[in-house]
Design goal:
The complex is a heterodimer. Chain A is an all-alpha fold. Chain A has one domain: Formate dehydrogenase/DMSO reductase fold (Up-down Bundle), CATH 1.20.1630. Chain A has 12 helices and 2 strands, in the order αααααααααααββα. In chain A, strand 1 and strand 2 (about 290-295) form a beta hairpin. The longest helix of chain A has about 35 residues, at about 5-35. Chain A starts with a helix and ends with a helix. By secondary structure, chain B is mainly α. Chain B has one domain (about 5-240, about 310-430). Chain B has 14 helices and 10 strands. In chain B, the strands form 5 sheets. A two-stranded antiparallel ribbon of chain B has the order 1-2. A two-stranded antiparallel ribbon of chain B has the order 3-8. Chain B is globular and about 65 Å long. The chains are: A mainly alpha, B mainly alpha. At the A-B interface, helix 3, helix 4, helix 5 and helix 12 of A face helix 2, helix 3 and helix 14 of B. Chain A: Its EC number is 1.10.3.10. Chain A: GO terms for molecular function: electron transfer activity; oxidoreductase activity, acting on diphenols and related substances as donors, oxygen as acceptor. Chain A: Pfam families: Cyt_bd_oxida_II. Chain A: InterPro entries: Cyt-d_oxidase_su2.
Chain lengths: ~350, ~450
């Protein structure tokens, strides 16, 4: 197998991990958003539902991000070094968000005092909103070519280059997607029709926001991320991916209105996966445009082969374990009850 | 403050913080699994309670360990991008394997914590075994990368870039076996003693409490066995350091002059200006024997190395003395407990013994922190021994003090909260009554 093919396979593995992180960990962020926005008579019931739904899978859902980072720095060390230098501040803020919400979520579970548990709830929810925005900002800045180090540039922590309209819009887009996913999932986590309806309304509202922001990102990309835009717009696969994404979005909306929740969940997941897949294709072959590609930033052939072997061996342990985890705690959401 | 200093302090703070949680994350699940195994065998409810209690502790500590570990994986790049650009492809493999071990741990911890009444008891116990095993595995993989930083192999440098990279050879670097053995066993010793201390403290207040009595027995068995074998792995680790990093050995021992029949120094404070270590108890030829097995073996002194290649001898020597001292004290307590248990067929429970266990409980963590200072500060000024200097790997980003202050504040806050939650957990000991029936004293 050629070196280029090896690098591509590792890059695809990274993208797939990122997609799974969005589908699982991302939904946990979204759940945090709904935790914060819980309202009305069923406020506490909504929060309990969220707690119960994410508790058992919480830790496992978040390791996917570590996998992406580890693959990035082992397989494409130059790209990792570039991104961590130019994106120092948003990444740091994102980390602080991860630390705060990760620990607050667990503390909430184990704290004996009720008023403190409420405070932990807020400490979990607030960074659940900020962190995905920062993650989106980093991806947006990357796509806009703002993550590449400029010759002789010294990054000042307090004078950021990543705070443009485009990265910010992508950040909000990420937040909206995560909230949408969470709402769609949460419907199936309860049998209570009123609670189901609460999250159904939230899912419909966020679906509309996702659609609007997707359009805005696409429009802004034309001028602010031309490299990515040209691939998304003009390449032979650009249109089919966009059409498929749109079709999933419409299917999810229809399924939500007609209360076919399993269909809605499947469609929303495919929709999200396609959005990220489209991002990956639009960026290809770049990791950090306009200079670092998956070819010129790749580690040696031997390292890539060993990494892929480790991935295969790891999957051998992980996939059955994950299936077991989800069968124990999520089986009820896969059997149709209505 | 220079950017380098800020970066170093931030990295040190993050690691010093994370290491406590990593250590408990390795050993506490192991104790929890022992308790549950005893429950499965004897049917005594107190063991089930114990396993559940330790599981709660594991959950809190795992969460903080996981987030601080996530921070570290990013900080490698945020603070040391050139190190990662150079080393990423060489040591990425053990990191990837660590990622999988961590992943397995997270999955089975979820199953263990939330699956008590949802899966068969044996399957549940097996989930606990997976947590304990993958915790140990991830520690081993991480320490392997650290061993490589101390004894880098598996590549050649051409024009400042690594070529002929062999990640397997890098993983199996000369220090790998010594460091992984020493660190893993240290984790069991440190966590065993820390937990034993808590239960000894509570047992002193409530002598008839079977819960704390059983907990103390398990924790002491785990911590004690580890503490007794630890000096052997420590000796082996020191031999490897003598062979591969003579300058680090010299700093550990406060050895300034190259000499045969070098003495072993106990205590003492190095004076780099005068080139000697004062106030130490010196055992003639002790160091030559320990490091090389011959009394007349030559031990290199710091003076034989260029000043810019020497680590901070004061810090390294003092940390080394602290580590060894703590280790010896823990071994003494373990021997006392073991001897008494063998003679009386029961864990000693005299007030004096319990007091000593309480006093000894922080020693393991102290030894772990000190030992980590020895290996890391002892490698300075190199980030990769002999290949890349720490100063050359630091990020170009300016204003790192902001980041340092923020992270430090975050860690102080988190540490405080964890202590508070753990105290809550310990105070809730009357739960023993829920175990049903009488829980009389063991006397």
């Amino acid at each position: 197998m050629s070196d280029a093919a090896l690098a591509t396979i590792v890059a695809v593995a990274m993208l797939v991990s990122l997609i799974v992180y969005a589908l699982l960990g991302g939904a946990d962020y979204g759940a945090g958003v709904w935790y914060l926005l819980a309202t009305g008579r069923r406020k506490e019931a909504q929060r309990e539902l969220i707690d119960r739904a994410i508790g058992p899978v919480w830790e496992a859902n978040h390791v996917w991000l570590i996998l992406v980072v580890v693959l990035l720095f082992s397989a494409f060390p130059a790209a990792y070094a570039a991104v961590t230098s130019t994106m120092h501040l948003p990444l740091s803020l994102m980390l602080i968000g991860i630390v705060l919400r990760g620990s607050a979520f667990t503390f909430r579970h184990y704290d004996a005092s009720a008023p403190r548990r409420r405070r932990w709830g807020r400490a979990f929810a607030a960074p659940s909103v900020a962190t995905p925005v920062l993650l989106g900002i980093v991806i947006g800045a990357l796509a806009a070519g703002e993550a590449a180090p400029r010759p002789g540039e010294v990054v000042d922590l307090l004078a950021p280059r990543w705070l443009g309209t485009f990265p910010l819009t992508v950040g909000l887009f990420a937040l909206a997607i995560f909230a949408y996913l969470a709402a769609v999932y949460l419907i199936l986590e309860t049998d209570d029709p009123e609670l189901r309806d609460d999250f159904r309304r939230r899912a419909l509202a966020s679906a509309v926001v996702v659609g609007a922001l997707a359009w805005l990102v696409y429009l802004l990309a034309r001028t602010q991320a031309p490299l990515v835009f040209s691939q998304l717009d003009a390449s032979p696969w650009g249109r089919p991916v966009r059409i498929a994404t749109g079709a999933c979005a419409i299917l999810a909306l229809l399924a939500l209105t007609t209360r076919r929740y399993h269909v809605a969940r499947g469609a929303a997941m495919v929709q999200t996966a396609l959005i990220l897949w489209g991002c990956g294709l639009a960026l290809y072959p770049y990791l950090v445009p306009p200079e670092l590609t998956i070819y010129n930033a790749a580690a040696s052939r031997r390292t890539l082969i060993l990494l892929l072997s480790a991935l295969a061996a790891g999957a051998f342990v992980l996939i059955p374990s994950l299936v077991y985890l989800f069968r124990i705690f999520k089986a009820h959401t896969f059997t149709t009850t209505d | 403050m220079s950017e380098l200093m800020a970066a170093r302090i931030q990295m040190e703070t993050s690691l010093a913080f994370h290491i406590v949680f990593a250590v408990i994350g390795i050993a506490l699940p192991f104790m929890m699994v022992i308790a549950e195994a005893l429950w499965l065998r004897t049917g005594e409810p107190v063991y089930r309670l114990l396993a559940r209690r330790w599981a709660k502790g594991s959950a809190i500590l795992f969460a903080v360990g996981a987030v601080s570990g996530t921070v570290l994986s990013f900080e490698l790049g945020l603070l040391w991008p050139r190190f990662m650009a150079f080393a990423g492809s060489i040591i990425g493999l053990p990191f990837a394997l660590e990622g999988f071990a961590f992943f397995t741990e997270a999955i089975f911890l979820g199953i263990y914590l939330y699956g008590w009444d949802r899966i068969p008891p044996l399957a549940h116990w097996f989930a606990g075994v997976m947590v304990a095993a993958s915790g140990a595995a991830s520690a081993i993989f991480v320490v392997m990368t650290n061993a490589w930083m101390n004894t880098p192999v598996g590549f050649r440098v051409v024009d400042g870039r690594p070529v002929d990279v062999d990640p397997i050879a890098a993983m199996m670097s000369p220090a790998a076996l010594a460091e992984t053995l020493h660190m893993t066993i240290a984790a069991y010793a440190a966590a065993g003693f820390a937990v034993a201390g808590v239960h000894a403290f509570l047992l002193r207040r409530d002598r008839s409490n079977l819960f704390h009595r059983r907990a103390l027995a398990i924790a002491l068995a785990v911590g004690g066995v580890a503490a007794i074998i630890q000096p052997a792995t420590g000796h082996y680790a020191a031999e490897v350091v003598a062979r591969t990093q003579p300058v680090k050995l010299a700093a550990m021992e406060g050895q300034f002059r190259t000499e045969r029949r070098a003495p072993l120094r106990i205590g003492g404070f190095p004076d780099p200006a005068a080139g000697e270590t004062r106030y130490a108890l010196e055992i003639p030829a002790g160091l030559s024997i320990l490091a090389y097995g011959r009394p007349d073996a030559e031990v290199l002194g710091l003076n034989d190395f260029a000043p810019e290649d020497r680590p901070n001898v004061r810090v390294v020597h003092v940390a080394f003395q602290v580590m060894v001292g703590c280790g010896m004290a823990m071994m003494a307590v373990a021997l006392w407990a073991g001897w008494s248990a063998w003679r009386r067929r029961a864990v000693p429970d005299s007030d004096g013994f319990l007091r000593v266990v309480v006093a000894a409980s922080p020693l393991g963590m102290l030894a772990v922190e000190a030992g980590w200072v020895v290996t890391e500060v002892g490698r300075q000024p190199w980030v990769i021994q002999g290949v890349m200097r720490t100063a050359d790997s630091v990020t170009d980003v300016r204003g790192l003090w902001v980041s340092l202050l923020t992270y430090s504040a975050l860690y102080i806050m988190l540490g405080g909260i964890v202590v508070m939650l753990m105290l809550q957990l310990f105070r809730a000991s009357p739960e023993v009554r829920e175990a049903g029936g009488k829980v009389g004293g063991g006397k």
